[in-house]
Amino acid sequence: MMRLKFSIYGSTLCFITNSERALDEVLKDFGRFENKGICEVDGEVRFIEVDGDFPIEVPEYAIRESFFPSGKSVYIYSNERFLEDKNKYIIRASPKTNQILVYGIPTYAASPLPRYLMKWMLLKVFREKGIFFIHGSAVTMEEHSLLFVGP
Questions:
Q1: How far is CA 149 from CA 46, 104, 121, 143, in A?
Q2: In the prediction, which pLDDT does 6 show?
Q3: The whole model's pTM is what?
Q4: Burial 26-48 (b: 16+ CB within 10 A, else e)
Q5: What pLDDT band is residue 147 in, cutting at 50, 70 and 90?
Q6: What is the pLDDT of residue 151?
Q7: DSSP state of 34
Q8: What does the domain layout of the chain look like in residue ranges?
């Protein structure tokens, strides 16, 4: 199992995986923030690549929170969220502990999914620390500037 920690604006995330492909995806966005000296982390994402059955499943009495046309569903059970795409991946997110656990087939280890989950966790940790991001762009001409902001 590979374990890397990344420090960004005073927040530290840990990424744990058995997949070189998932690690390569995360390093695209987070590689320059790697920090080997940090002990405590604010959030953790585990991406475990598996062939075959996933070792976790959506609990029997979980409530379907939303459904997406492609067959993905979001469930809630005991303050945890589950996102399942049958036979492709299952995600268990624990908002109280800032932990995300993913079991996925090799195809998804090489997808943007690991990077997306790290970014989601980073934004959650930032919100908890009172740091808010504005997505946008700016243009300056002569003495004037325009800021274009988005979600």
A1: 32, 34, 22, 20
A2: 96
A3: 0.84
A4: bbebbeebeeeeeeebbbbbbbb
A5: confident
A6: 64
A7: B
A8: 2-150
